[in-house]
Amino acid sequence: CDFIFRLKGILEFACQLDNSNGAQSQSTISKSFQDLRSKVSSKNIVFTVCNSPVLIWPNAGFQSSVESLTEASACGDILHVCTGLVEALNKQLADMEEVVLRYRKGSSFLVPQPFHFQLPKPAGLITVIYPAGVPDSQLQAVREDLHRKFKLPCDRPYLRRANAFHFPDAAYKDGYLRNPHIHLNPPNIEDAKLYLVQGVYSYHHYMQDHVDDNGWGCAYRSLQTIFSWFQQQGYVETAVPTHTQIQQALVDVGDKEPRFVSSRQWIGSIEVQAVLNQLLGVTSKIMFVSQGSELATKGRELANHFQTEGTPVMIGGGILAHTILGVVWSENTGQIRFLILDPHYTGGEDLQTITDKGWCGWKGPEFWDQNAYYNLCLPQRPKTI
């Protein structure tokens, strides 16, 4: 926090300099960042370990705890971690300086903001500095350079702000549960492979947001879950739509009459496809199943979807809608289990109840009405970074 206050002080001081003194303000900023880096590298810097009495002076080789640490002690790795942390802090400050100078306009400066990203191996956890106030849409060239640097695919976002790493002990401010399925163990089926949704989504279900949609809003909630996936993967910055906004989108595309807005009418997979296209520009494939018993034979198609696209799937049939988050499927035997996120849940955001009671859980082929028809909406990833 002290570094942030010092950084704001640097920018405020630089902004007070006259526009004609551009070289002077640049020199002031560079010297100030150099001063911060020297403090990080000094013997005065002290690290604390969260929820621990341990204090560590990484640049002085001194540790204060119940017993002294050395490289030969059981916790000796802490010393190496601290050395790496000092190096990382120095690099962040250097990157911040570069961003401040790159995006300055006269006497106007943008605050540099650090974002941490968990990338595929071997890159791992990295930190990127973005200028505050500059939207992701204007940072395309920066991301392209980073994708090349870290050898990342150029068909999906990895480094947008929404992709930033979420630390496990940090709460989500909106109150929705994220990825409840990660707390489940997959079924043990011999010779079967696991195919799951890729990335982060929010669990949307009946009775949330002060809306009583019990009995009619399950497909709306499944659509909201899918929408949240595109939002939290960084494809869009649009808020998850309300029931009314979903209905208005269907009116706007000519699928429904104006009186449909604010009604309690059901929607299905075809409407979900239309709304995703209208609000996000996302295309979807529709899989038609004439009766529920056929779903047991759709393992290959679903496995391929989760392996290549990785988006949640909405399935509607009769009067019920669900979200499919993955499958366990054996190519040799054809055995399959479906990972279901059930929008019909009406309780609070109680993870244990949701997983213990099967509101998010693995289901066999008998879960589906064997004689009812089903339509599945399989959203496709946009090819963009």
TrEMBL record:
- Its Gene Ontology molecular function terms? deUFMylase activity
What are the entry keywords? Hydrolase, Protease, Thiol protease, Ubl conjugation pathway
The record places domain UFSP1/2/DUB catalytic at 194-377
Entry-linked InterPro entries? UFSP1/2_DUB_cat, UFSP2-like_2nd
Presence of keyword Hydrolase: yes
Q: Name one Pfam family in it.
A: Peptidase_C78
What domain of life is recorded for the organism?
Answer: Eukaryota
* GO cellular-component term (any): endoplasmic reticulum
Looking at the record, the residues that make up the UFSP2 second domain are 80-172
Q: GO biological process: what's one of them?
A: proteolysis
Q: Of which family is this protein a member?
A: Belongs to the peptidase C78 family.
Q: Which PANTHER family match?
A: UFM1-SPECIFIC PROTEASE 2
- Protein's UniProt name: Ufm1-specific protease 2
Origin organism of this chain?
Answer: Sinocyclocheilus rhinocerous
Traced from the root, the source organism's taxonomic lineage reads:
Eukaryota, Metazoa, Chordata, Craniata, Vertebrata
